[in-house]
Amino acid sequence: MEKFSIDPVNEPIIGIAGVNNELEERIIRNRKEDFLNQDFKELEGKEVEKTFEHIKMIDWANAATNELRRKFGLPDFNIPAQNIHLIKEEFWKHEVRAFFESKYRAIMINESVGVIKIELLGRILHEMLHFKSYNSLQFTCGNDQKLTRHQVGLDTLSHGAKKYIFKNFNEAIIEKLTAKLESNALGQADFLRKDKDRLDALRTNNADSVNINSGELLFNENTYWAEEDGNGFIRAREWKKSIKEEMFDILVDKIYQRNKNRFDDKNMVIDEFTRVMFYGGFKEIIKLIDDTFWPGTVQALEKFENSEKDGKPFNDVVGQLQFVKDL
Ligand SMILES: [Zn+2]
User: Fold this and answer.
1) pLDDT, tens digit, for every residue of 53-78?
2) Would you kindly state where each structural domain of the chain is located, as residue ranges?
């Protein structure tokens, strides 16, 4: 059976296939309508109208993420500009600055991100990669039958919607891919030309400047944006690895070291995770990890993503990092 639909607009649904064809068809039809018609009442008056430059950014992000899909043998999947909603700051109610909303089949971004263009592009790329990953739905059985997500990339909500698995690895892969694409954009995209020229000039003229907080050199290979603030100070931004990415890198290194017969280098291991992110089939990743370390490693990793703190669900990334270090 095919793991993905050739038409990526349609997501496979588990837990219902073949059981109730009429319901399945209706769900698929509704999901397609939602994808194509983004007029949600809840968003009325809350969005910023997109500029010509926003459209250019979205086009660039679509092309770059499609190229990645092609590398893994998948067809192009374009996210229309109307599925990307730039929400006015005063209506933004979320802790994060952007997210992929599977329910609306849309990307939501706090428009204030756009103050720094490359950061807005980064958010578009990041959420597009979630959107363009393997997406599937599930119909939970039992008394409270409901339609919910199953997989968004490697990030899997178990059958029955009881627990998460690979949430943090999935995020780490997306962060890694996004940073790479952002760095390509900085050298290529015409809408970043001015920002890039200003960064280069400031870097050349202030090569010895230090960060007043850390005492370290202000400019390094990870600096992606800089500006003079008018009081003689330079503000700069740089790419930094998150804890999730650090954890993923350690895991990848350990998998490579212990499977040199299978992988030529670390990138091959990363590609294996990325392939599954695009195609689904997370069982292959469970097997890879459990075979590399010991049976039950994935179950132990899962516990950190489904822990509790003060009676609330808690994703214990720091605990998971330590666990991976000790593997
Ligand atoms: Zn994400």
Assistant:
1) 999 999 999 999 999 999 999 999 99
2) 13-184, 195-238, 243-326
